[in-house]
TrEMBL record:
Compositionally biased region (Polar residues): 12-24
UniProt record similarity statement: Belongs to the ninjurin family.
Lineage start: Eukaryota, Metazoa, Chordata, Craniata, Vertebrata
Molecular-function GO terms, alphabetical: cell adhesion mediator activity; lipopolysaccharide binding; membrane destabilizing activity
Pfam annotation, one family: Ninjurin
Protein's name according to its UniProt entry: Ninjurin 1
Entry's Gene Ontology cellular component terms: plasma membrane
Length: 156
């Protein structure tokens, strides 16, 4: 039983050669294939779709943070965590804008150019690190809370 590993070509296409007889078709499980197409995967197209999805999630979080910033500002400086929340939300917004710009640059680079692989890897790691920081900052924003705690009713 001779099986060859997946092959990755420099043109951004990948094929699975799972049956070991040189046939380019992927192995079937239980007589059925999950997808009926024998298309090769274009790695550039895949990476661009992934970056677009990350950008959409970044936009959703950006809108949520803008809404939180508005709510904190409406509560005013009398709110106990006013300054920390303003700072944390502002940091989150700035980092999200930076990640959005970084993702635009990532989409523009060609994965097929081996000379760009080092730079793309660095930029991808940077984007991942910034997203992690954004998540941590937003955990603190959530922990401090945006809504003013309700005061207990006083009986007269």
């Amino acid at each position: 039983m001779d099986s060859t590993p997946d092959s990755h070509e420099m043109n951004g296409l990948t094929t699975a050669m799972g049956n070991g007889n040189g046939d380019q078709t992927p192995p079937e499980e239980g007589g059925r294939r999950w997808l009926r197409t024998n298309r090769q995967i274009n790695m550039n197209h895949y990476a661009n779709k992934k970056s677009a999805a990350e950008s959409m999630l970044d936009i959703a979080l950006l809108m949520a943070n803008a809404s939180q910033l508005k709510a904190v500002m409406e509560q005013g400086p009398s709110f106990g965590f006013y300054v920390p929340l303003i700072v944390l939300i502002s940091i989150s917004l700035a980092l999200q804008i930076a990640v959005g710009v970084l993702l635009i640059f990532l989409v523009k680079y060609d994965l097929n150019n081996p000379a760009k692989h080092g730079k793309l890897d660095f930029l991808n790691n940077l984007a991942t690190g910034l997203v992690f920081i954004i998540v941590v900052v937003n955990i603190f924003v959530t922990a401090f809370g945006v809504q003013k705690p309700s005061l207990p009713e006083q009986k007269t």
